[in-house]
Amino acid sequence: MTAFHTVLAVTLVLLFTLMALGLKLQLGSRPPGRRRDPPRRIHHVLYFLVTLGTLASGVLALFGHLVWWPFVPLLALLLSMSRTRPGNPAHWRLATATALLYSAAAWWVW
User: Fold this and answer.
1) Per-residue pLDDT of the chain (110 residues; tens, 9 = 90+)
2) Is there a contact between 109 and 67 (Cβ–Cβ < 8 Å)?
3) Cα torsion at 35, 37, 38, 39 (round to 10°)?
4) pTM value?
5) CA–CA separation, 67 vs 32, rounded Å?
């Protein structure tokens, strides 16, 4: 397995962990006004790692003469997540679309 495949696989695992934690935060009950609890911080760290992994996958694909262009729109989708409010339907719809497109792109370039 190459470095590209390793980074892509780790990023996919992190992405689905991020999605699971986001779903738990969305459906779970938490006291109002607690926006900086530990699960939310972990969610933000996972988001940063997934974004970084997407960038690294694209760069490794580019320098490895592999298909790199699917990572550009995926990175744009990930970076646009901050434009939607957490808990808003637009946020989870964009997250779900990003995860599905990321999975499809990873399967295609693998």
Assistant:
1) 899 999 999 999 999 999 999 999 888 866 655 666 888 899 999 999 999 999 999 999 999 999 999 999 999 999 999 899 888 899 999 999 999 999 999 999 98
2) yes
3) -60
4) 0.91
5) 45
